[in-house]
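Milestone M4 deliverable, item 7.
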Amino acid sequence: MVMAMIRLISFDVWNTLLDINVMIENLVKALSELLEVSEKDIMERILKTREEIKKIRKSRSGDPEKALEESQELLARVLGVDIEIVKRATAKATLSVDERIVLPEVKETLKKLHGNYIITTTGNVMFWSSSYTRLILEKFGLADYITKQFYSDETKAYKPMKEAFLAPLKYFNVSPEEAIHIGDTKAEDFEGALNTGMYACWINPETEKVEQIHEKGFVVKNTKDLLEVLHRL
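Output delivered:
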């Protein structure tokens, strides 16, 4: 295997650093309180809308410039409410998150990488703006270890688009061969990064051990396994 000189590590945020389920639960609770509708009913609608948005993005039929607005409008439509309710609920959800939202061993992993690599986030947005994700990363001290954060509502490109992955590389003048991206979604994170020419790690909790499944791609169980991948490279 070719020895790689990795300079930049790009992290997906949700289900890589932070637990999306905790945020969704909070969003469901907030909407349930605002609308006086059962949590079960709201959860079903949110999950249905998320799948719909993922399909739109995979087929590239959405407008990258309006990725956030489109997802908020779609959810508002499914709930039969004004978009203002969705905006309020995402604010309430963000305000009420606790430390359960940080996935295990994430902070320790970031600490070990900090100072040795350029650390970035490459995140898609859905329902809430990147400013809320930034608040959560600050609140639990993860932002201290991240050099710069990149999100689709700021870069106007969402994963798996090449532009989303190239934004941090261009900013830091790093070539794709000097970068690795880690995330939990095979199509968005893993294939998106590989198509850009980067190294890639797909987080699959079902996997038993670190495995190389592509010339530049690995499957790992969690974020901590990234340390082993970097060691191999």
